Amino acid sequence: ANPSILILAGDGIGPEVMAEVKKIISWYGDKRGLVFDVSEDLVGGAAYDVHGKPLADETMAKAQEVDAVLLGAVGGPKYDNLDFSVKPERGLLRLRKEMDLFSNLRPAQCFDALADFSSLKKDVVAGLDIMIVRELTSGVYFGTPRGIFEENGERVGINTQRYTESEIERVARSAFELAKRRGNKVCSMEKANVMESGILWREVVQRIHDEEYPEVELSHMYADNGAMQLVRWPKQFDVIVTDNLFGDILSDCAAMLTGSLGMLPSASLGAPMENGRPKAMYEPVHGSAPDIAGQGKANPIACILSFAMALRYSFDQGDEATRLEKAIEKVLADGVRTADLMGPEGGTAVSTVEMGAKIIE
Ligand code: NAI
Ligand code: MG
Asked: Per CATH, is 1-104+262-361 categorized as 3.40.718.10?
């Protein structure tokens, strides 16, 4: 059977950028003999409009069966006042939770043609290629007790950072596996100096390294120093593995080393399925961009790079992923720019569709 993909384009610019990805998927079938079984369904506000909830049960079931889910973006002003339980974002959270996507991959990659775009000096970011692996399903966002309680006549807000050994083990393995396919280096970040969960994190990552991946170079860093080092000299890193909270912050920071939100892909991976492929969802980091939705201005590259990650991590097509990334690099080097990639000197921006066409060309 052909590998299967479920496309959930979602809201706002989601369907606009996903339309370009669909053309690229067809191109792979026509030109490279790489045929995918593609199905499509609704998520977010688009699903709410039809089903009264942001992800139908049938859609959830389909997502569990396919080899990879590609998601556009969800949300928008039309849905801002909905009850929390049916908000578009809940559709996304349900997918992540029920597929148990514990390993969130956020690359920070700098295309040379965009190095001027970074807020850092050009030589600090040119050629940058690092990968942040963020634990996504546990930690302080989920630990209990949590809530706002009365205590001694005032209120206290409580969240609990909590990690089990097996939760640390599986995300550590995911980082070491990645490193083997990249620069063979992992830096683990926590705050073992002040947090018990950090002490356990460091110990377990070190043990998984020693027992299973001794050939990978492992270092440890306190997360606050890590934030500093990321901005000072990011090229010292290859793969960074960290918990949910630190990963949230560090990955946003690393991402912005490289320029526009319209350029940033992500992958969320879970445990291997029966066919050996990991449960997986790929999505751009950006949202539904209501301010530019419907205008044909959105940059499709983040979504296209997310599909490149799918080629690499779900379908074992690393060479084809590289082909796609090289095409994007070429188009950018030729000076083709969507509006979000225009500097203050201006110029003529291309549309979403034109950018997609240039990449295929
Ligand atoms: P956003 O990422 O949608 O937009 C932030 C800014 O970046 C906007 O000015 C937008 O025009 C620009 N931008 C984003 N993607 C772009 C692209 N591909 N090309 C060109 N410009 C791009 O974040 P915002 O405005 O905070 O949220 C808008 C809606 O999206 C909200 O409803 C929010 O909840 C939702 N959202 C959804 C996410 C998801 O589906 N994963 C993630 C973040 C926000
Ligand atoms: Mg964040």
From this structure: yes
